[in-house]
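Per your request, structure below.
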């Protein structure tokens, strides 16, 4: 099973890129973030024509997540823990696979900037909710993939210029500690299971020639339960999508499970 995550930064603006990449990469399941549209505005017909079932949790103009799957799926929308939270940042699917299932979530974790504001308080609270939910999901002892834009730079090797991010909500010690608390539940960072190398990025800002200078960061992650990690056989970052005309500032990250 091939599973991917991609913050498309507006699915309607990047539809041609998405359809091209679906044909080239042939993923079985795709977790999208920042679709930036209501459910009814998602280009469902075009994606279904490419061979995918579509499940969305949309929001006008901002946020929004989706799961595309070649197989029909059972869907849950929204992250538990705060009934007042109206931001569309989490969708979960149970995907049939062989004689069993794989559970996959598409996550768009809050950015949290500026740190000295309620935005950072919301980020940390959201991470606490994700930790609590992941703890429950792990008790199911299923292959589980928590995929998405985490807005977390886990380590200095995950940034071309770590010092430039020192005061940013993506790289604050508290942010990284929360991320490691999530990992310490028993989850595996798929990329780090395959390599310790630095210089592997998933996001390049549109400003200041970041792409041309390879001034990137790694903030898009696929975290695996032990049952999924045991099946991991390949990981890649489809960096070439950032070089296309009018690209997303993120690129797809892809794993293969046997």
């Amino acid at each position: 099973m091939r599973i991917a995550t991609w913050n498309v930064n507006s699915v309607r603006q990047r539809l041609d890129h998405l359809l091209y990449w679906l044909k080239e990469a042939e993923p079985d399941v795709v977790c999208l973030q920042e679709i930036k549209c209501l459910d009814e505005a998602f280009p469902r017909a075009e994606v279904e024509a490419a061979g995918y079932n579509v499940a969305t949790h949309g929001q006008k103009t901002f946020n929004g997540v989706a799961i595309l799957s070649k197989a029909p799926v059972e869907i849950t929308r929204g992250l538990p823990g705060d009934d007042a939270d109206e931001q569309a940042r989490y969708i979960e699917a149970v995907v049939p696979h062989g004689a069993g299932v794989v559970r996959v979530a598409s996550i768009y974790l809050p950015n949290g900037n500026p740190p000295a504001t309620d935005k950072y308080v919301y980020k940390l609270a959201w991470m606490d909710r994700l930790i609590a939910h992941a703890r429950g999901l792990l008790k199911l002892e299923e292959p589980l993939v928590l995929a998405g834009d985490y807005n977390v730079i886990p380590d200095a090797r995950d940034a071309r210029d770590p010092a430039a991010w020192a005061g940013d909500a993506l790289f604050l010690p508290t942010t990284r500690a929360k991320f490691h608390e999530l990992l310490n539940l028993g989850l595996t960072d798929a990329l780090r299971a395959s390599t310790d190398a630095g210089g592997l990025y998933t996001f390049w800002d549109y400003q200041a020639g970041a792409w041309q200078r390879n001034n990137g960061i790694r903030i898009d992650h696929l975290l695996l339960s032990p049952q999924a990690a045991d099946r991991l056989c390949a990981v890649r970052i489809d960096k070439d999508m950032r070089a296309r005309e009018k690209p997303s500032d993120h690129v797809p990250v892809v794993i293969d499970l046997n």
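The chain has one domain: 2-257.

Regards,
D.
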